[in-house]
Inverse folding.
């Protein structure tokens, strides 16, 4: 078998290296990514990393797909409130639902995190995992982004999709490690990112096993189990993956600890931050933004010479649909 | 690439099917396992399952390795108490530690679950994940089983190691889903079972991310995070894997819900229970045993025609060391 695997590896490498990262402009970011992958996959390199240890972790919102004007999962939750309103006549007089049902999103979210918590729990709990999956699937295949008119899955960044593929073709196992809900992301992560459900790490609510008419189901409870953000990200990595990544990709202060944890391992490491600086093709935001705040991680990234990607200058195109009509 | 993958698949299948499960006697159990694998991997079969969906979950204690005279992880904890005693002078007068240090295991465990909880927390928390991993690694490479005098990793069941390999060669992804501690099992699961850390699901304590002198570490806190047993097993599967297995392997009532959850999916499924009925080559215990109680799952398994393996009559040999001296 070894010969055949060897052959497979050579062919995959050849396919991958023929034209890696076509949507990336030639420059420092692309050159450093390619050099890192060559160093850790070359058996003669002092930085060689065995395939089993080639773990790469990606944040999702703002790193693999867009996160403006608000997290897509929150847009899903807002749509679900409307869809579920007929089953909840009490929402008519109860905030944050009352504002939402009058299409006053700003008013609904004025309640801050407690309001968001209520909206998320009302739309992400009290049902089985199968029912929730169906709700997400129905939404993600039909709902459109408010600015671009595209399906949300089309809002994935083409250069990052190429990076995922390049790493996998180089023997990496690619994981998502995101503050987003794990059950939400798993519905589309395999199709859109090529990341199977068992390689998605995210925030989660508690679950309860029940037999309903003899049929086993898992019920989503209105209780937070784990928040996979900030200092929670290395914890999520340990809980789920159980080894330290050699490459980590993020875009905000929520990714700082994951980047630090990755950087602290031995040997060569790849830490990369996506900087949203292209108001024309996407959005421009960093230190002052409430969503995807990039402040401390940016400073630390610059100080420690992590790769900071300028979406404006490092990426030839951001979305695969650019130049076409929705 | 498709052709090469196709070739690889044919070659693996050929290698695997040349002599699958050599330590299994010819009989109903082996025949049903082989028939199941053929059905779900044959593209022309109505029961065909795509490789991405070929998820197989294995309990560990009593299913992949022995669990008598007590769980090996508890034996590790008892040894650790002795190793750590010099740092804890107060243990001399404090139960359950005092009894343990006088080599009175029975007295120490007389305190029941609270005593075990204290022993586990004293030996599994208050250190970093790296420190804990080292402690397990040191122990597992030196400690010997009290009855056989073999290293604990030698106490893995040879027929189950072959089953793991057979399934992987047939395109399955094999996971451990065990009540044992996830950080404990990950230390040896890859080497012994060929199951990488990211495919080990188990019980866990809470973790805390800290920067110690600028270096990120994960500290194991003396607080339970998740118990991956009984109704917790389908929950652990959903949290970690995110899809329903098509094959599940267990040996006790702690595996019943995992087996039910697996059985409830569409299409052909494989549910298997290992019955410890060989006092001569291993141990004999079932309904009345405190460790690895097999009672309800046995009845349900027989009623639902799950495979119930008799270690005595279905397995040619149990341990790879049989017939040799330690």
């Amino acid at each position: 078998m070894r010969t055949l695997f060897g052959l497979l590896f050579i062919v995959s490498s050849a396919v991958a290296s023929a034209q890696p990262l076509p949507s990336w402009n030639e420059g420092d970011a692309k050159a450093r990514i390619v050099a890192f992958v060559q160093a850790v996959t070359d058996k003669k390199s002092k930085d060689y990393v065995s395939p089993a240890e080639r773990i790469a972790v990606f944040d999702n919102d703002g790193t693999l797909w867009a996160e403006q004007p608000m997290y897509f999962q929150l847009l899903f939750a807002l749509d679900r409130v409307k869809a579920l309103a007929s089953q909840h006549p009490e929402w008519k007089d109860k905030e944050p639902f009352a504002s939402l049902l009058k299409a006053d999103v700003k008013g609904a979210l004025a309640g801050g995190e407690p309001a968001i918590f209520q909206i998320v729990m009302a739309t992400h709990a009290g049902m089985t995992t199968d029912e929730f999956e169906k709700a997400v699937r129905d939404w993600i295949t039909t709902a459109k982004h408010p600015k671009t008119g595209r399906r949300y899955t089309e809002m994935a960044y083409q250069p990052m999709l190429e990076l995922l593929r390049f790493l996998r073709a180089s023997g990496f196992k690619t994981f998502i490690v995101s503050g987003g809900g794990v059950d939400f992301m798993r519905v589309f992560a395999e199709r859109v990112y090529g990341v199977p459900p068992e390689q998605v790490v995210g925030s989660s609510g508690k679950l309860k096993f029940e037999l309903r008419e003899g049929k086993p189901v898992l019920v989503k409870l209105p209780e937070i189990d784990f928040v996979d953000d900030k200092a929670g990200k290395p914890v999520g990595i340990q809980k789920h993956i159980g080894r330290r990544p050699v490459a980590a990709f993020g875009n905000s202060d929520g990714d700082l600890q994951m980047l630090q944890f990755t950087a602290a391992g031995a040997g060569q490491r790849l830490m990369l931050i996506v900087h949203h600086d292209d108001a024309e093709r996407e959005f421009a935001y960093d230190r002052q933004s409430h969503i995807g705040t990039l402040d401390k991680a940016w400073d630390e990234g610059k100080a420690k010479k992590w790769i900071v990607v300028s979406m404006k200058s490092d990426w030839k195109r951001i979305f695969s649909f650019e130049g076409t009509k929705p």
Remarks:
- Residues 2-18 of chain A form the longest helix (17 residues).
- Residues 277 and 284 of chain A are 4 Å apart (CA to CA).
- The two ends of chain A are 47 Å apart (CA to CA).
